[in-house]
Amino acid sequence: MLIRKAVGRGSATYKYDLLTVLGTYALSQDKTLQRQTLRLICLITARYNWQGDTLSVGQEEIARLWSVDPRTVKREMAAFRARGWLIERRAAARGRVAVHGLGIRRILEDTRMVWERVGPDLVQRLDGDAQPGGTEEVKVIPFPQPEGPDLGSAGPVWGAVAELLRAEDAGRYRAWFAPLHAEWRGHDLLLEAPSDFHARYIETHFLSRIEAALKRIAPGGRVVIRAIPR
Q1: Where is the DnaA N-terminal domain positioned along the sequence (predicted)?
Q2: Of 58, 121, 41, 127, residue with least CA distance to 93
Q3: Are 80 and 40 a contacting pair, CB within 8 Å?
């Protein structure tokens, strides 16, 4: 997944891709989420500063833009923050509006299910796999897929976390989580991947899922991902 600021070469395409996957995702959801996502798309289009990754708009102005009252704005903005689609960079204060950034990583993660509906070109762009000129073939090399987790010194902690991840999506578990070696160091669950690419991919796509599972098994624990030292 390609996470970057939408500035410079290719920035216009990247902006449209983000708005497209948001809209496509919304249309696959219930009416409440459709309306909520449309409000965010409208706010991004009207007031988001792509270069600075800042959204600095007062609740009254947002209320006019959405044709709602300020209480609805307050509730919806809180919902966007809870989903991780907006990140509060500076809280509102007397005479000063709040400043938010766009949670692009979470937006892409949450909408990934609909990328294929848009087309393989969008999937390539957002995955960061598109080659310069579009002529070089992309080779996919599968990772070894052990049946069970390498528990290491993490013992029952990683075993329990792994079971939650396996129950959520067995195919994803076999491809990405089963090859990991786990160690428990203090309050850190150290997960070592077979390559730098594997580690980066998990950190980008699945870190929040691992953290959520760990929170259920060992509250207060922290997930650390790295490649196995060579």
Answers
A1: 157-215
A2: 58
A3: yes
Instruction: Write out the residue range of the structural domain in which residue 177 sits.
Output: 154-227
Specify the CATH number for the domain of residue 45. Answer: 1.10.10.10
Please give the average per-residue pLDDT across 4-11, as a whole number: 51
Other C-beta atoms closer than 10 Å to the C-beta of 153 total 12
Tens-place pLDDT, residues 73-123:
999 999 999 989 999 999 888 888 999 999 999 999 999 999 999 988 888
Polymer length in residues for the chain: 230
Q: Are residues 110 and 188 in the same domain?
A: no
Global pTM value: 0.54
If one counts the domains in the chain, the total is 2
